[in-house]
């Protein structure tokens, strides 16, 4: 790489690590950056709040982002409301608010649905599809934890974990 820095991609037993973050609302905590370091890819599930956050994340790994309900202004208009990402043969569907999901992920062939909005971390399986919300990495809301997530993709299978930052 031209900057002289080496980017390490962490893999575990042939799994690719993907960092997942949401609801930063203009705040990128140093603890979130450290938790995402080593990811092959970073997914931001919306409510970015400030385009500088995406630039900071891009210094760690390529970033795929969807627009959240607080993402306004000219910079945010280029962000799509949904994204489909392929990682090692697994299809991941991204949107900000899972309540807006208007398709059957299983019928569409998705292995995971990545979302945010509620600020509550969540990992659940539904009809063979992983539903994954990394929670909120921005300003603390109520008594909710401050978290990011990681998903691991290998041989078309997807599993996730939540990382509490405080």
Short description:
By secondary structure, the protein is α/β, with parallel strands linked by helices. The chain has helices at 30-36, 51-58, 74-77, 105-108; strands at residues 11-12, 15-21, 41-44, 63-65, 82-87, 90-95, 112-114, 122-126, 129-133, 147-154, 157-164. The strands form two sheets. Strands 1, 2, 3, 4, 10 and 11 form a six-stranded mixed beta sheet that branches. Strands 5-6-7-9-8 form a five-stranded mixed beta sheet, with no helix packed on it.
Which terms would index this structure?
166 residues, five-stranded mixed β-sheet, 11 strands, six-stranded mixed β-sheet, Purple Acid Phosphatase, chain A, domain 2, single chain, alpha/beta, globular, disordered N terminus
| CATH homologous superfamily (4th level) name | Metallo-dependent phosphatases
How many helices in DSSP terms? 4
Q: Classify the beta-strand content into a percent band.
A: 25-35%
Described by strand count, sense and barrel closure, the largest sheet is:
6 strands, mixed
The 3D shape can be described as globular
Helical content, roughly? 10-25%
CATH topology: Purple Acid Phosphatase, chain A, domain 2
Mean pLDDT: 92
- The Cα radius of gyration reads 15 Å
Count of distinct strands: 11
Class from secondary-structure proportions:
alpha/beta
The helix/strand order is EEHEHEHEEHEEEEE
Query: What gap, in angstroms, lies between the N and C termini?
Result: 33 Å
CATH class: Alpha Beta
Q: What's the number of domains? A: 1
What is the second-level CATH architecture? Answer: 4-Layer Sandwich
Residue stretches low in confidence (pLDDT < 50, at least 5 long) are 1-11
């Amino acid at each position: 790489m031209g900057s002289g820095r080496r980017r390490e991609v962490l893999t575990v037993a042939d799994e690719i690590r993907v960092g997942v973050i949401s609801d930063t609302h203009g705040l990128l905590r140093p603890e979130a950056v450290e938790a995402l370091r080593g990811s092959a890819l970073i997914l931001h599930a919306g409510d970015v709040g400030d385009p500088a956050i995406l630039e900071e994340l891009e210094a760690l790994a390529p970033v795929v982002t969807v627009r959240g309900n607080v993402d306004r202004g000219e910079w945010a208009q280029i962000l799509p409301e949904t994204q489909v990402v392929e990682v090692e043969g697994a299809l991941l569907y991204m949107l900000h608010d899972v309540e807006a999901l208007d398709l059957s992920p299983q019928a569409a062939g998705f292995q995971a649905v990545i979302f945010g909005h509620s600020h509550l971390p969540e990992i659940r399986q539904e009809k063979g599809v992983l539903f994954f919300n990394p929670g909120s990495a921005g300003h603390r809301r109520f008594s909710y934890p401050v978290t990011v997530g990681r998903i691991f993709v290998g041989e078309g299978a997807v599993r996730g974990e939540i990382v509490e930052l405080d």
